[in-house]
């Protein structure tokens, strides 16, 4: 063997590596993508076989993009809820498929039962659980932090900071899941999910092809028993302890050295997710101090963090939602006997709630470094006008709420709301949502109030998509436990608030199949609700009489208000006001608050650009000053 054999091999390996890199570059192209779109293309590039989920902002576009861009053999569905989606994804992973399940942070609560068990059982194919967090919150009930859930469920978590990183990271997450036989959480936040960037993505012909082996019977592996759980719990803890060291070498967990006058600085920053991007921008303005990037908040890259902290006196933690990184660094300081002072949310140096921004992070970093606040590059723009959220002009939910309000006028009532467009029924002048907790909760609240106050007429409002997602157990419970309340199903034939996704009542699937609609009426009657009536809420007099009649019946009863969402179905009509007849009483505005109606002096004016011709206002006008006109 020649003496220079090792050098020849090294040069050959470098040449082959360079050729592979050149090949990879040729296989890449740039697309201007939303973060969620990038995640979807990353999943497809990783060879995903099955994608399922339940729509919820800010996660929804991931599944929708997969549906648009998928190749042959990729199955996609909107499941009825997150729990069902997680179970479907788990079953496919048992058979060796690469599966992705999508939801927002609230949905992880619904999916937690199967997820906790899946971690104990393990998976064969890669299983990535995309849970999009919503700091702010912008479109959620809570600011729940999925990083805590990762530690609670013992499931590894990846936390991307940019759309490009999200594209790359989901592919790494699939590999990681298969290598360690565990579900993996991918946790983008709103600004990563909904931000746009030019992303380097693979050409479809370069996508990985994953051929599932199929399900192999093994009751000792796939059937969860206490003895198996006890053994696997110990193995999971051992694995995660090793991963804390393994992930210290993961490229996503890295340090940026101090530069220039800050090279020997004894102060540093630690950040993760979108806050890392803000921290990098702040360093350009305030000073390039040392920076620790955390991409796997669980298991935490302990050795990498300890090495970083050992060189510093103070570290400012920059993160959204809860002080996860901050607490981990405090723990590491205690474990390794480091005297580094950790600052962040718990010390008042960063806000405890809400979103971070580029400017807020820059101000916090400047204060941490003892620098004056940076001057703005441009004058402060004028404040945007305040526009409270309202139901769309012509929304059938407005008519439904108004019909119930009229029917129950003067009676002791409670109107329990739910999550969706119809939550906006709480706004004045409708004022028809007394409670709103989480999906499906209105049914339970109405039952509870009825048991405590039998003389109160209790109503629970729920949308058609939410009916299938989470209302059925509540109806069964009510029938079984002899409750007395009125269920109002607001059926506008779509999942409106999250972007008009199909559901079992629409007659189509995300795969584009036309299927039989699941009848809400038949489901309710099958459960045992004997009084079920359906009415068009835009026929106001009929709708009011229906509510009066049905709500007076004993036990559990239901009114289904069925009228399509105006965002999907245009009537081709609009209303017009006759100034000669209008007396300026303003009843139409005071009663229903439609945004297409306004006062022009002392007369009613109809905004033709907004009006959808629903005709509700005309049914209220005491002098017939509002008439329908065709403008198709």
Notes on the protein architecture:
The protein is an alpha/beta fold and about 625 residues long. The chain folds into four domains: about 25-225, Thiamin diphosphate (ThDP)-binding fold, Pyr/PP domains (Rossmann fold, 3-Layer(aba) Sandwich); about 250-370, Rossmann fold (3-Layer(aba) Sandwich), CATH 3.40.50; about 395-560, 3-Layer(aba) Sandwich (Rossmann fold), CATH 3.40.50.970; about 575-630, 2-Layer Sandwich (Alpha-Beta Plaits), CATH 3.30.70. Strand 15, helix 17 and strand 16 (about 485-490) form a beta-alpha-beta unit. Helix 11 crosses helix 14 (about 360-370) and helix 16 runs parallel beside helix 17. The protein is globular and about 80 Å long.
Topology of this protein?
Elements: H1 5-26, E1 28-34, H2 35-45, E2 50-53, H3 61-69, E3 75-78, H4 82-94, E4 99-104, H5 105-121, E5 127-132, H6 146-153, E6 157-158, H7 163-180, E7 184-186, H8 190-194, E8 196-202, H9 219-222, H10 226-246, E9 254-256, E10 267-271, H11 274-286, E11 291-293, H12 302-309, E12 314-318, H13 324-336, E13 341-343, H14 358-368, H15 396-407, E14 413-416, H16 441-452, E15 457-463, H17 464-480, E16 485-491, H18 520-527, E17 531-535, H19 540-551, E18 556-562, E19 573-577, H20 587-592, E20 597-600, E21 603-606, H21 616-620, E22 626-630
């Amino acid at each position: 063997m020649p003496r220079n054999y090792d050098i020849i091999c090294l040069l050959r390996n470098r040449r082959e590596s360079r050729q592979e890199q050149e090949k990879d570059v040729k296989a890449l192209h740039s697309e201007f993508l939303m973060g969620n779109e990038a995640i979807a293309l990353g999943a497809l590039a990783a060879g995903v076989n099955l994608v399922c989920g339940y729509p919820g902002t800010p996660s929804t576009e991931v599944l929708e993009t997969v549906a648009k861009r998928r190749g042959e053999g990729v199955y996609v569905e909107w499941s009825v809820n997150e729990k069902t989606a997680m179970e479907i994804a788990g079953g496919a992973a048992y058979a060796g498929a690469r599966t992705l399940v999508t939801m927002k942070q609230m949905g992880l609560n619904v999916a937690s039962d199967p997820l906790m068990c899946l971690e104990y059982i393990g998976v064969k194919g890669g299983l990535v659980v995309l849970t999009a967090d919503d700091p702010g919150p912008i479109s959620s009930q809570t600011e729940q932090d999925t990083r805590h859930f990762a530690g609670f469920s013992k499931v590894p978590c990846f936390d991307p900071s940019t759309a490009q990183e999200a594209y790359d990271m989901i592919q790494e997450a699939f590999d990681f899941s298969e290598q360690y036989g565990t579900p993996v959480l991918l946790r983008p936040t709103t600004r990563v999910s909904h931000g746009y960037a030019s992303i380097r993505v693979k050409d479809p012909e370069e996508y990985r092809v994953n051929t599932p082996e199929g399900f192999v019977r093994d009751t000792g592996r796939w059937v969860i028993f206490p003895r198996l759980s006890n053994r696997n719990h110990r193995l999971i803890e051992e694995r995660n302890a090793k991963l804390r060291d393994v992930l210290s070498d993961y490229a996503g967990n890295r340090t940026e050295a101090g530069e220039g006058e800050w090279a020997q600085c004894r102060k540093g920053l630690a950040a993760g997710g979108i806050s890392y991007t803000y921290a990098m921008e702040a360093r350009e303005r305030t000073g390039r101090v040392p920076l620790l990037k955390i991409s796997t908040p669980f298991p935490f890259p302990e050795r990498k963090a300890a090495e970083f902290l050992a060189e510093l006196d103070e570290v400012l933690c920059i993160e959204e939602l809860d002080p996860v990184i901050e607490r981990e660094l405090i723990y590491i300081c205690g474990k390794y006997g480091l005297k580094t002072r950790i600052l962040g949310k718990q010390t008042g140096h960063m806000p405890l709630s809400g979103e971070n921004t580029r400017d807020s992070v820059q101000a916090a970093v400047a204060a941490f470094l003892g620098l004056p606040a940076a001057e703005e590059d441009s004058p402060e723009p004028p404040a945007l006008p305040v526009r409270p959220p309202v139901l769309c002009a012509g929304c059938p939910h407005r008519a439904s709420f108004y019909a119930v309000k009229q029917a129950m006028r003067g009676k002791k009532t409670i109107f329990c709301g739910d999550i969706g467009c119809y939550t906006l029924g709480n706004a004045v002048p409708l004022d028809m949502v007394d409670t709103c907790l989480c999906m499906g909760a209105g049914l339970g609240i109405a039952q509870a109030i009825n048991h405590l106050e039998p003389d109160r007429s209790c109503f629970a409002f729920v949308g058609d998509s939410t009916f299938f997602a989470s209302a059925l157990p509540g109806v069964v419970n009510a029938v079984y436990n002899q409750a007395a309340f009125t269920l109002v199903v607001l059926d506008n034939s779509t999942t409106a608030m999250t972007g008009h996704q199909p559901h079992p009542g629409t007659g189509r699937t995300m795969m584009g199949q036309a299927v039989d609609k699941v009848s809400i009426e038949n489901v309710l009657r099958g459960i045992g609700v004997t009084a079920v009536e359906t009415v068009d809420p835009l026929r106001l007099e009929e709708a009011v009489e229906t509510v009066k009649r049905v709500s007076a019946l004993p036990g559990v009863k239901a009114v289904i208000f069925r009228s399509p969402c105006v965002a999907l179905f245009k009537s081709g009509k609009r209303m017009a006001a006759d100034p000669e007849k209008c007396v300026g009483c303003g009843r139409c505005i005071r009663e229903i608050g439609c945004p297409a109606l306004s006062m022009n002096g002392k007369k009613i004016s109809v905004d033709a650009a907004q009006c959808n011709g629903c005709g509700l206002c005309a049914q209220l006008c005491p002098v017939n000053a509002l008439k329908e006109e065709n403008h198709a």
